[in-house]
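Listing 4. Sequential folding, example run.
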Amino acid sequence: MILVVGSTGYLGSEICRLLRADEQPVRGLVRTTSAPEKVERLQSLGVQTVVGDLRDPASLAEACRGMESVVTTAATTISRQPGDSILVTDQQGQLDLVQAARAAGVKHFALVSILMSMGTCPFTTAKRTVEQAVMSSGMEYIILRPGLFMEVWLSPIIGFDYPNTKATVFGEGHSKNSYISLGDVAQYVVESLSHPAAKNTCFDLCQPQAFSMQEVVRIFEKLGEKPFDLTYVPAEALQAQAAAATDALQASTASLMHDIATGHINGDPSQAEHVFGLKLTTMEEYAQRVLETTPVS
């Protein structure tokens, strides 16, 4: 059986769906505070849900009991709940999960992390710390390092308001960064669990072509046949915001935006392409998909 930590999130729920479509036995870790409709959806897929929390080591030990594999996609950057913090949840909680999995005799551990090119901030420090723990755990592991999720960074959540043809641009919008569709990352995770060449390996996951925000906007303008209204946030302002932040999540968010402004989120997908050979969602396909589902105003 496969334990998915982060099962109610964007990525984790898609991983659960794909695993169940392949008739794999899946257990999903859910919180007492998880949205009931998300838990019910997992259960309707045939996922066995178990209540637990990265902030509760005892619950992790119970959740890992009898598991063959553990997949963790958990991150507080989007789905932050009361009591969450990068240090407590993203770092210590994930370290406790690695320890619980090891103690339970889990054979395979899959971690969704971030690209190595990203700058230092509390979030990247947490990810690197957990990566090291996974690699030295003695379990077979795979570490997947995706680029920017299209569904997050090219959505109204972050200021890319395509339904209203508006976008917030970090920097001047000419620096290029690596993107990938969330669904493609889920497919990589599922494939990696049984692929012999994926053992004890780290993979960058992204499209072979990097995009600037100006290029992304032009794609949306062409397909949507409407011009975008752009608001620019200078890279210097983002750097100052990160330096002045008193909260680790705020500092990390500003730092990530500064990385985008300066083109510091880039990966090399050649190894993943060679091993898995998956056809990835193109930027045009992503834009077409979301524009087709956007209500006409």
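-- end of first protein; second protein begins --
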Amino acid sequence: MARFDLSRTVEDLRRVGGDDVAAVVERVYGGDSESVTREEWAPCWRLFGPWVVGDEERARTVVNADLNAPGLVLMSEFDVRDRLAGVTCPTLLCAGELDPMTTVAVHQEIADALPAGVARLEVIEGAGHFTWRDAPDRYWPVLIDFVASQPESREPSPSAE
């Protein structure tokens, strides 16, 4: 996302999950995430696409609840659209066709804010939020092709100077 827009996120998830899902999403991303139970979040999570985080991934997840509140405040203020015009390197945007969180429109907003000729937007059909898991046979070739098609640069990066 180039910006976080709570109302857009809530409405996008309402469109695919209904009012109950939208209410939970609004609580989570609106700053009341600690009151939402795993059971309440489960119907929302299932909408993210064919593959969703399961028990194995949850077992490896480290939760720092103290960061939730300040992190949500920072996220609510996040907006870098005015900085995207300064991006000069080729940029690949891979959007899952079914992703209700970072929708194709969210990716298109980034592509539109980048300088002409910089962005390549690829919509991965049948994929949700986790495109590389949902459609690895389509995602990885796009990524590999994009990287392989870039000219080799011999110039030092700005951080190396």
